[in-house]
């Protein structure tokens, strides 16, 4: 077992390193509050809209991006999918680790947004790479909010290959834990001189 301090704010992270199982454990705070289930939640299987069209993770107007598509899962879970394109190659034949991390970032951010209906940004993200993921694989990421403390949102996610090469829905090929922070519109105001495109959308949070 390895214990270390992660992030500039010293989030305590304990990683139990095993070779057979996904095993990192992120110690959650004792005062974690579980968010209420939104009254207008559509139930499992409903599409979750992109949060804005130019997003590298989910945007449909971002040709080099991941193009992740999301649906609601059971409870507060969201399910994201994308195919590992050839341009995401790291080692020969396999996904670049940073691409998988990007996908986890997006998926956990979407889980926050679906559960809390608030804009969030990533403060800290941890990842376990459990299996090599081949080009052409279709990855499914299941993500959820574990709880909140003030503006801090604690999230978790697992990835599986559900179609294409090495598909096995019973095998977790990677997992992630993350800390997101709820922010207001003023956070994105700081980017208005650099923004590429004009964020619009029917979600209030998309009109950055
Ligand atoms: C840029 C892309 C995002 C575009 C989003 C567009 C629309 C958003 C709409 C909805 C979102 C929907 C889906 C999202 C989908 C994808 C997500 C992608 C998200 C990203 O990819 S986003 C890019 C990377 N991300 C950043 O660019 C953040 C840079 N950063 C900052 O902007 C500040 O750093 C900030 C705002 C994080 C905090 O600053 P702040 O001044 O507001 O608040 P403060 O410092 O007081 O922290 C409050 C409490 O969090 C604790 N805390 C803070 N940081 C911590 C850390 N690292 N470890 C442990 N604890 C930490 C403190 O200790 C305190 O805790 P306590 O309450 O206990 O005192």
TrEMBL record:
Transmembrane segments: none
EC class of the enzyme, as a word: hydrolase
Compartments, as annotated in UniProt: Cell projection, Ruffle membrane; Cytoplasm; Membrane
Every Thioesterase domain range: 93-164
Main location as per UniProt: membrane
GO molecular function ontology, one term from the record: hydrolase activity
Biological process terms in GO annotation: fatty acid metabolic process
Alphabetized CDD domains for the sequence: PaaI_thioesterase
UniProt KW Iron keyword: no
Residue stretches in coiled coil: none
Membrane disposition: Peripheral membrane protein
Enzyme Commission identifier(s): 3.1.2.2
Annotated GO CC locations: cytoplasm; membrane
Gene3D superfamilies referenced in this protein's UniProt entry, alphabetically: Hotdog Thioesterase (3.10.129.10)
Reactions performed catalytically: octanoyl-CoA + H2O = octanoate + CoA + H(+); (5Z,8Z,11Z,14Z)-eicosatetraenoyl-CoA + H2O = (5Z,8Z,11Z,14Z)-eicosatetraenoate + CoA + H(+); (9Z)-octadecenoyl-CoA + H2O = (9Z)-octadecenoate + CoA + H(+); decanoyl-CoA + H2O = decanoate + CoA + H(+)
Keywords associated with the record: Apoptosis, Cell membrane, Cell projection, Cytoplasm, Fatty acid metabolism, Hydrolase, Lipid metabolism, Membrane, Transit peptide
Entry's family note: Belongs to the THEM4/THEM5 thioesterase family.
Protein name: Acyl-coenzyme A thioesterase THEM4
């Amino acid at each position: 077992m390895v214990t270390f301090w992660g992030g500039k704010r010293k989030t305590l992270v304990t990683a139990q390193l095993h070779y057979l199982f996904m095993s990192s454990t992120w110690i959650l705070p004792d005062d974690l509050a579980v968010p209420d289930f939104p009254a207008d939640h559509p139930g499992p299987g409903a599409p979750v809209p992109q949060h804005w069209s130019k997003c590298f993770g989910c945007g449909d107007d971002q040709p080099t991006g991941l193009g992740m598509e999301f649906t609601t899962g059971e409870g507060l879970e969201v399910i994201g999918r994308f195919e590992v394109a050839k341009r995401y190659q790291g080692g020969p034949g396999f996904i670049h680790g940073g691409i998988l991390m990007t996908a986890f970032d997006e998926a956990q951010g979407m889980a926050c947004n679906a559960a809390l209906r608030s804009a969030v940004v990533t403060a800290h993200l941890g990842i376990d790479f459990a299996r090599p993921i081949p080009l052409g694989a279709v990855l499914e990421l299941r993500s959820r909010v574990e709880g909140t403390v003030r503006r801090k949102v604690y999230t978790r996610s697992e990835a599986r290959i559900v179609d294409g090469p090495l598909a096995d829905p019973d095998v977790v090929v990677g997992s992630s834990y993350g800390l997101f922070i709820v922010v207001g519109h003023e956070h994105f105001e700081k980017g208005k001189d650099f923004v590429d495109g004009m964020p619009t959308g029917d979600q209030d949070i998309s009109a950055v």
